Amino acid sequence: MVAPIIVFDLDGTLVDTAPDLLDSLNHTLGTIDMEPVDGADIRRLVGMGAKVMIERAFEARQLELTKPTLAKLFDVFLEHYSAHMPGKSLPYPGVPEALDRFADAGFSFAVCTNKYEGMSVELLESLGLSERFKAICGQDTFAHRKPDPRHLTLTIEAAGGSPGNAIMVGDSETDIKTAIAAGIPVVAVDFGYTDRHVSNFDPSHVISHFDELTEQLVGRLLRSVAN
Asked: Which domains does the chain have, with CATH numbers?
């Protein structure tokens, strides 16, 4: 029998990467003498990746951003972010304990993220978490990326799991749309990176701490799609 699997988003779900994303964004903006982004705004900016972060920083200042400039700044961002990993990034409270709890119950794990695969593996390795996951799949792993449901289902298959015996845990509208499109229950954390509360996007369940991700909850969600 195929083990049940929990698939996690990365940034804003498993790991709080916002401080390092902010540092890299402000380093990038500083190379063209732009004012830094305030830390209070970062969680609204980071949910859709580095390019969107840069675009939103320009929009907030009502400045024009050309495609060549965006491409150049994106490269600067990636170089800085990769060079300083893991920096201040840390797993959210309760993550190691939740992984222990579900591993003991026979679950396997995977990561499905729109971060680049190599960068995701590097981050999780630096935090001592990479060996927990049967697959770590990024935006460049397959021909599809979230919110395309194939990014999720292919991640599950790469980890040796079955979409019919899986749930997803994420922090954004993108994660929730992906899981719903794949017919997979989705638990949304409400401490991640989104400019609207995750309950607005109709996840299967919302949690505020990984202690709330219990075997009873996951079992109920898996039964709901099996029936």
From this structure: 5-16+89-226 (3.40.50.1000), 18-83 (1.10.150.240)
